[in-house]
Amino acid sequence: MESTMLSESQMNKLGELLSGSLSLGHWRTIFINTNFREYDNSNFRDAVRFGNDDLSHTCMRITEEILTSDEENIKHFWNIQDLRNIVRRKDPELYRFIEDYISGDAQKTVTTSPINNTNENIYNVLKDAEVLLEKRGPGEAYDRIHTALHGTLKLMCDKSGIVRKDNNRVDELLSLINNHLKAKKDSERNKVVFEMLRSAIAILNKTNELRNHHSNAHPNDGLLNNADARFAINLIRSIMSYVDDLLG
């Protein structure tokens, strides 16, 4: 299966939701606009009219095939107001995910990764995070991003000769790096921006709290929603990228 903006389970859920809800006219519109006219046949029309037992499975299969062929086809589904209302009412999380994609918000996550301070393990963690961002959304990816941050800051310390402890938290590691950079007295570094980096230590302290209590790192009831997770991920990645540039 080719990569799509929806995971297989999300596509199946969408197809299941639509199986008993969309009219033949709506299905015909989707088939025409996505160039899947072969499904507009008597067997499918009868299945929709009479609610055949295999209708749900058929709709899941058709939805998956249409979206797998071209992820942009989701827009042809989403142009149907009745369809949007059905998904919003029956699966708010799926509705928000698709809405984010359609509006472009799903693409608004900072993607810059460390260039100078990385290794295979960090790269693999970041790669896992990218997959989760694409398939499951920012809320599911937050723990992986935080893990990459921790590994990157440790590596930055080691490569720069900064003494650290194995159990240092991310905010403690950034504090050590900050002191190291301050001692270098780089005349080209903007003082105000560097003060912002010191303030980022408090931000990273909060990222620990989010990881421990609002991510998949531990069993939690209150996972981050996509907007909050995206905001936290963007902050983490921006800090990682800036410190990576400073240390070289």
Automatic annotation (TrEMBL):
Alphabetical keyword list: Plasmid
Cited InterPro entries: Abi-like_C (IPR026001)
Residues annotated as domain Abortive infection protein-like C-terminal: 177-243
Any matching Pfam family: Abi_C
UniProt protein name: Abortive phage infection protein
Taxonomic source organism: Candidatus Pantoea soli
